[in-house]
Amino acid sequence: MPPDLPDATVRYAGHEDAVVDLHLPEGSRPTSPGTPLVVLLHGGFWKQEWDRRHTRTQARAIADLGAVVATPEYRRVRGGGGWPVTGDDVLLAVRRLPELLAELGIATGPMSLIGHSAGGHLALWLSSHDLPVARVVALAPVCDLREAIRLHLSDDATQAFLGGADPAEADPMTLLDRQPAARVSIVHGIGDDTVPISLSRGFVARHPWAELHEVPTGHMEVIEPGSVAWSTVVACLEIA
């Protein structure tokens, strides 16, 4: 089996995209009850052409640190998704994960969320819900939807995602005015020209309890094992 392929895939609902890839430490099963669980949310500006497969190398690298890594797929714009469907999908996937893992005999401990770009938006959004999440690591997140709209990021992808909905319904910038229980860390490249670091700087200025780690990279290096940003990402996860 190629090293980046998942060790298992489970289904959390009936639609085509309702699947979660699982990467296990050294491909082992079962695991111990203290094994960290990391939910990895892929990015791609919520667009149909980007799916979970581009994060498999990242998922495998995190699993090799000793965590169970779960990568949910979700419906995306032009694939039946957009707001609120995309949010509903990831929320259901995270809520069902404990029972799905238990059915496979996989025991885990504290849950962390990590997401990149639009996946960083989803990770931060999930932290505003009542979920047993210990930490959130947002990588170059779209953390301010109104600013993303103002900047027309990715050919107005945020407008397409919202589909006319009020940005406040889905915007971590406002939803997290109430500090979540989870520890929140942001890792963002100072040379990012896809999601400018100004979004994360603005988020932390409004929410000083969040940690911002600025790294000398662009947009994609924060999900690339071995990059100059990778040690910062690993340190924020606190599993190694």
Any key phrases for this structure?
alpha/beta, globular, 8-stranded mixed beta sheet, 240 residues, 8 helices, Rossmann fold
Q: Could you walk me through the main structural features you see in this protein, from its secondary elements to its overall organization?
A:
There is one protein chain. By secondary structure, the chain is an alpha/beta fold. The protein has one domain (8-237): Alpha/Beta hydrolase fold, catalytic domain (Rossmann fold, 3-Layer(aba) Sandwich), CATH 3.40.50.1820. Helices cover 31% and strands 18% of the residues. The chain contains eight helices and eight strands. The chain has helices at residues 56-63, 85-103, 118-126, 145-150, 153-162, 172-175, 197-206, 230-237; strands at residues 8-11, 19-23, 37-41, 68-72, 111-116, 133-139, 183-189, 211-215. The protein is globular. The model has no long low-confidence stretch (mean pLDDT 96).
